[in-house]
Design a protein that fits this description.
By secondary structure, the chain is α/β, with parallel strands linked by helices. The chain is 33% helix and 14% strand. Helix 1 packs across helix 3.
């Protein structure tokens, strides 16, 4: 019997095990694919920029691919600050329709400004970022629909305004991508309070219509 595809979470450097366990459970529940926490890996020294005191996320993607092995996708989780040359920082990065993605705990945890958010807000931010970057690896680009999980977030304020849900268009695109590859018949649907001005997610509308 063929083995079911697995998503792998890879700690890059020290990462709180509680965060890893939460992401493993939540991602598996929402995407309907098994998620496994893989062995930790040290941060590669060549990805560190001394003057910026940051790590270049693109080099971390390449590093993850060197040892990606069997998982369908790999998501690196790290506590260090990430950047790409054209931005002051990034929350994460992913290969579009590729295999690797990475997200950082540094900014969502308030390390840049010294203001720590409540634990539930931190975990929500990290789940938003993880699903966003993984969805890039499944072929989704950035979305302009207000509140959509695939919207671009330039700062924490924008990140916190997003839904833990896709807009109708992104939902269909992701489901089609996964169905075409025989990965799962249907995404798990989750409803939460919408951001101000955001359209109601398509599964929320469907649920209300069936009452």
């Amino acid at each position: 019997m063929a083995r079911r595809p697995v998503l792998g979470l890879v700690p890059l450097g020290p990462v709180d095990p509680e965060i890893l366990r939460h992401l493993r459970r939540a991602i598996a529940k929402l995407l309907g694919l098994p998620v496994r926490i893989l062995r930790p890996r040290p941060l590669p020294s060549h990805s560190y920029h001394l003057e910026r005191n940051q790590y270049r996320s693109t080099l971390l993607l390449e590093y993850l691919l060197d040892d990606s092995g069997g998982p369908l996708r790999v998501l690196g989780i790290t506590a260090v600050d990430l950047y790409i040359p054209i931005f002051t920082f990034v929350f994460g990065e992913a290969q579009l329709d590729g295999k690797a993605a990475v997200v950082s705990i540094f900014r969502p945890r308030g390390d840049a400004g010294g203001v720590r958010p409540p634990k539930n807000l931190l975990l929500r931010r990290l789940l938003l970022l993880s699903l966003h970057e993984l969805s890039h690896t499944f072929g989704l680009g950035h979305c302009r629909q207000p509140g959509c999980l695939m919207g671009f977030s330039a700062n924490l304020e924008k990140l916190d305004q997003k839904n833990l849900a896709f807009c109708e268009y992104c939902q269909i695109m992701l489901e089609d991508y996964l169905k075409e590859r025989g990965l799962l018949p249907r995404l798990r649907r989750q409803v939460e309070t919408r951001a101000p001005g955001a359209p109601r997610p398509v599964w929320d509308r469907d649920r209300k219509g069936r009452r």
